[in-house]
Amino acid sequence: MSSPAYGIAVLISGNGSNLQAIIDATHNGSIQGQVSAVISNKKEAFGLERARKAGIAQAVLSGDDAIAAYLQDLAPQLIVLAGYMRVLGAAFTHQFAGRLINIHPSLLPAYRGLNTHARALAAGDTTHGCSVHFVTPELDAGPVIAQSTVPIQPHDTSESLQSRVQAAEHRLYPQVVAWLAAGRVELKEDQVWFDQSPLHAPLQVPAPHTV
């Protein structure tokens, strides 16, 4: 009898492009697991339609308690925040510590919070990018697992930079989920471990060549 598939629950608020990248990676075998449910705090989120088309269960839920109860019943091995635009409370993040991850559009710890692309441009940075991290109660401050770096071009706008960072996200996030599903990444005492050794710097995943 085969063991159950590695279950992944994804929380979204909008378009769900990172959700789609993860779904695609489960379908092509890059991720040895399956997305078992997509949860949104907004009923109009297009990511719910992506889930429907892929035959994945969808739920529209508001509030930490309702989501936590749903996840307890679902019992996924991993909970992925993919454009989930609500801050989760400390009780929730503690309950699911070590199996709750997020992607953020900056090279953390730089530019926590919103408007990261405009802030990087305003600072005159030459590089920008995205980070996948374990979620802790402090916003965008959990241990970073991996990053992808994107060069800033001389004529970049917030919109052009955002587009290239998103392309990098669509490679980075499935890669990190694949490592977690394979048991290669884990959180021990607030430190990221990779292949049974502690990481002293985030793993680096190259951005697509077009970036």
UniProtKB/TrEMBL annotation:
GO terms for cellular component: cytosol. Pathway: Purine metabolism; IMP biosynthesis via de novo pathway; N(2)-formyl-N(1)-(5-phospho-D-ribosyl)glycinamide from N(1)-(5-phospho-D-ribosyl)glycinamide (10-formyl THF route): step 1/1. (6R)-10-formyltetrahydrofolate binds at N102. It is an enzyme of class 2 (transferase). Its EC number is 2.1.2.2. The record marks D140 as: Raises pKa of active site His. Residues 8-177 form the Formyl transferase N-terminal domain. SUPFAM superfamilies: Formyltransferase. GO terms for biological process: 'de novo' IMP biosynthetic process. CDD domains: FMT_core_GART. It catalyses: N(1)-(5-phospho-beta-D-ribosyl)glycinamide + (6R)-10-formyltetrahydrofolate = N(2)-formyl-N(1)-(5-phospho-beta-D-ribosyl)glycinamide + (6S)-5,6,7,8-tetrahydrofolate + H(+). GO terms for molecular function: phosphoribosylglycinamide formyltransferase activity. N(1)-(5-phospho-beta-D-ribosyl)glycinamide binds at G16, S17, N18. The active site is at H104. Keywords: Purine biosynthesis, Transferase. Belongs to the GART family. Catalyzes the transfer of a formyl group from 10-formyltetrahydrofolate to 5-phospho-ribosyl-glycinamide (GAR), producing 5-phospho-ribosyl-N-formylglycinamide (FGAR) and tetrahydrofolate. This is Phosphoribosylglycinamide formyltransferase. It comes from Spiribacter salilacus. The gene is purN.
